[in-house]
Amino acid sequence: YGNYTQIFAATVEVSGTDMAASQLGLADEMDYQKQERLRELIRDLENTVFNGGQPASNPEGSGTVRRSMKGIIQHLSTNVLHDNDTGHPSDDNLDEACVNFMLRKIWENSNGNVDLIVVNGFQKRKINSFISSSRSYGASDTTYTEMISVYESDFGICRIITSRWMPQDAVLFLDSSRINVLPLAGRSFHFKPLASSGDYECGELIGEYTLELRNEAAHGLIRDLTTS
């Protein structure tokens, strides 16, 4: 599927006083601010990979519309379950039958090999509850665990990972071999010094990235799950 690149940028500005001052535990204020802005940009990139959307007109950008990349959720259409669809839980609570229904649906519609299930914290607890009725521990055990980090089914072995940027009512099923987050050549995150017009040093952290998603039918999405 085609996509556009999106620019992620954040400015850094440090006063001459902060540059000259000796601060406990901080060797260089400018380097520290660069690291903080980089963390913010990586967070924004992760959010956009999942939730990024493109305008219906001028997705390539214009004088009034910035160029943006389409995220995973907006890409998917073949294997998507909504409320009242066949296979969707009748009470909207995520259950094991629904997970297996989606894995089978993807397997039937493509040659994909789902190996990642991505959820937010609420749906992760729902997945953990799959084993609530069968969990046990011995008299000598000192740790009580109720967590599922890998789900093995007839249609593949999936790691379960959490992302705070996933919509609370959604579960993503991904074939990681068919997804890449790539920078434009020479445009990975880097620092660009800018001219200063006063008693400060300034610059910009900038990167230009896009999502490459191959074989849309090799992935899946469940929506409209309960969130409380």
UniProtKB/TrEMBL annotation:
This is Phage major capsid protein.
